[in-house]
Amino acid sequence: MRLDPFYLIVDRAEWIARLVPLGVKLVQLRIKDRTEAEIRGDIRKAKTVCCAHGCQLIVNDYWQLAIEEGCDFLHLGQEDLAGADLRAIRAAGLKLGLSTHDDVELETALAAEPDYVALGPVYPTILKQMKWAPQGLGRLSEWKARMGNLPLVAIGGLNVDRIDGVFAHGADSAAVVTDITLNSDPEGRTRQWLEATARWRR
Ligand SMILES: Cc1ncc(COP(=O)(O)OP(=O)(O)O)c(N)n1
Ligand SMILES: Cc1nc(C(=O)O)sc1CCOP(=O)(O)O
Ligand SMILES: [Mg+2]
């Protein structure tokens, strides 16, 4: 399986309606602190937009809703994974991406036979508090060597200037939140990301 090199992560279906039509091909809906009904509604809206634009939608955390709403790709962290029914997820045909932050988490992730592994935070992030120090680029190369052909997603503190570095160190896709959502021109920044990742979109 091949992932698009530009992996956008947003917290509302509205972002997906704004940015996916610009040419984004891989997007995660990562919603925190909303009701189940609201999240379900956002998943439905996101699915419709992604379907219309040939964009892969990945649902974060809410594996039961992803199954119920007929989604096809899910992202789980290690704690999410511990509480999830992997057999039900696979039986529903969902592909699965997993977070990792250290050696033990990588072993756990690989044992679950995911469709990609994410490593973070590569750089300091302002999105959320993290208990891990920034991994640095060398850690991406280490992960890639241990993962074989499995796609590797880099996440945490990425911006347009850091894209080439993560790909040169083995990442297959670069995930980003605040460099786009907190930018004064999110559409313009999205276009920059699309352009900067074009050479890695082989
Ligand atoms: C691509 C990608 N990588 C890592 C994460 C983080 O997942 P998790 O550790 O479960 O933390 P939350 O995002 O749920 O706060 C991710 N969402 N996407
Ligand atoms: C959601 C998330 N997970 C991470 C991990 O390391 O698992 S880093 C991160 C935040 C990514 O946001 P930004 O691009 O704004 O730094
Ligand atoms: Mg999670």
TrEMBL record:
Biological process, per Gene Ontology: thiamine biosynthetic process; thiamine diphosphate biosynthetic process
Its required cofactor(s), as named, are: Mg(2+)
**What Enzyme Commission number(s) apply to this enzyme?**
2.5.1.3
Q: Domain of life of the organism in this record?
A: Bacteria
Pfam families on file: TMP-TENI
Keyword annotations of the record? Magnesium, Metal-binding, Plasmid, Thiamine biosynthesis, Transferase
Its pathway is:
Cofactor biosynthesis; thiamine diphosphate biosynthesis; thiamine phosphate from 4-amino-2-methyl-5-diphosphomethylpyrimidine and 4-methyl-5-(2-phosphoethyl)-thiazole: step 1/1
All copies of the Thiamine phosphate synthase/TenI domain together span 12-180
Keyword NADP present in the record's keywords: the answer is no
Q: What is this protein called?
A: Thiamine-phosphate synthase
Q: Which organism is it from?
A: Rhizobium sullae
